[in-house]
Structure prediction request, 238 residues.
Amino acid sequence: MGETSADTGEHLTSGAATAAAEGDGAAPSPRELRRQRRIDMSREQILDTAERLFAERGYHDTSLKDVASECEFSVGSIYTFFESKDLLYEQVLMRHSIGIESIQNLVPDDVPADERLARLAEIQIEHALAHPAWGVLSAEISRMARSRGAVIPEAWFHYNERVLAYLTEVIGRGQEAGTVRPGSPVALARLYFAVVTSFILVTTVAESSGADGWPTDADEFIEFVSDTFSTRPRKNAD
Prediction:
């Protein structure tokens, strides 16, 4: 799951000009607006291309030169928008992530915790399938985060800490209400996170590659999540 936080650490050439125009209280000129649109389109093209290459090749085997070549830009043009490959990678990860506030709006606190966990898994899967390259990339780096020594972008690391804290709170409240199975809320939150991200990884890989034999039945997986974490039988269970 990811957070819509595309402003983190961005380095855009348009910032100074826009700020100056706003500071003077004057509306940007048509020429400035056209320039801004070109900048925004170029930045999105870079992010789209980098997302695909990082997903296909991995971080270490993707260079800024590769991204620039695919975009038909110079490497210097990439540096105009992103100060480093690390920052580009971080922004690729963060731009499609789902914010905690958005999750709380989609799955309100008054929904029973076991149902919230099932619905949250469904939202994450649907979101990853809507952005398959990002789904592969985000699930893979979430898996890597559990490996000692893995290098994880700071913004993504802190985002996942917030996600785990949110899941821990949901599970703890569910246990108090008797709707979520007993056990350490922290351990169960980590188990939930690992299971969902693993399913997203194999599902998005299968969807993007057309591979057969991968477990891609989302409805069946949601039932598994419900059976695993809920203390209540499913309404449609036999």
In short: Residues 100-229 form a domain with the Tetracycline Repressor; domain 2 fold (CATH 1.10.357). The chain has eleven helices and no strands. Residues 1-23 have pLDDT under 50 and may be disordered.
